[in-house]
Amino acid sequence: MKAVVTGGAGFIGSHLCDHLIGQGHEVVALDDMSTGSESNLEQLNGHSRFELVKGSVLDKALVDEVVATGDTVFHLAAAVGVHTIVDKPLESLRTNMHGTENVVEAAVKHGARYLVASTSEVYGKNDADGLGEDSDRVLGSPLKSRWSYAAAKGLDELIAYVHGGDSGLPCVITRLFNVVGPRQTGRYGMVVPRFVDQALAGEPITVHGEGTQRRCFGSVFDVVPAMVRLLEAPAAYNRAVNLGGLEEVSISDLARRVVELTGSASELHYVPYEEAYGEGYEDMRRRMPDISLAGALIDYEPRWGLDDIVNSIIEHKRAVPSQPQAALAS
Ligand SMILES: NC(=O)c1ccc[n+]([C@@H]2O[C@H](COP(=O)([O-])OP(=O)(O)OC[C@H]3O[C@@H](n4cnc5c(N)ncnc54)[C@H](O)[C@@H]3O)[C@@H](O)[C@H]2O)c1
Hints:
By secondary structure, the protein is an alpha/beta fold. It is built from 12 helices and 14 strands. 45% of the residues are buried. The chain binds nicotinamide-adenine-dinucleotide. Nicotinamide-adenine-dinucleotide binds next to helix 1, strand 2, helix 4 and strand 5. The site of nicotinamide-adenine-dinucleotide (NAD) has 29 residues, from helix 1, strand 2, helix 4 and strand 5.
């Protein structure tokens, strides 16, 4: 495989690059380093089958040039994280819509297989017991910037799907449910690394809302190999496929679990949504995937439980401490 990984310097993208290189493939990562970092790829520095190209998916000519070198495209570049989306709504929309158009069109032009990383956010406020790929989308007002990520990702799916039908693009849409693991940063609103950072620093663990909202967290080490296998499974082409874990936990219990596993003395501190994200913020009560389609297509079965996932993050953060908040703001 000659793979192009957009967003390859990001959390999931860098693990995908590691995995592909480990499997003997050639990899070109394209990343504008907005939320990604070179340190995520330092283990691949100088590798003969790996190249990092710094640039944006909004640069159509560059995207065309990079995609021309590959036969497979994993499109992960996106504006990600609640803070990014709420703070930079227009820039985020541009990246998540026009960037995707550029990548998909290049994949069609150069006859490459295409996978797009979509998200459980497309289900919005649907809190059904096990969201299947055909479940309804229940989104808030399009004028609430919080939902613009879900709106753009929904369009990303549609662009891929239509090209799959009209242009015969071999494509897979993966809907990722709260993927976590080492290298994920808590800077943009990601809850698990943020809790771990706070616990390790002995600071209060800030739980947004009442903490009763429930989530399932999936390990990047389960999800990344599944993404590759899906793109190698023609039965998955032109379909959306949920990927994630099944162990459901409330956010308060997650915070307690992090405190226990880090051995921290941190206490839970509840912060209203309005204070964390501004007025009118809406959250989902529950989000749980039905992963039976991935099971049927590629025998997908999550192997990492929540404690293992949290421990892998703690271990990574102890080895590579996060930068202080002041440095991150600059
Ligand atoms: N982590 C999750 O739980 C999760 C859940 C659902 C979907 N996803 C999707 O998975 C993908 C990867 O997310 P992640 O969690 O690794 O986040 P991330 O922020 O670590 O990765 C995104 C990467 O895209 C890069 N990027 C952003 N704009 C770009 C642009 N214009 N041009 C080139 N590169 C650009 C960033 O620098 C970063 O390296 C995203 O598409 C995201 O929407 C992630």
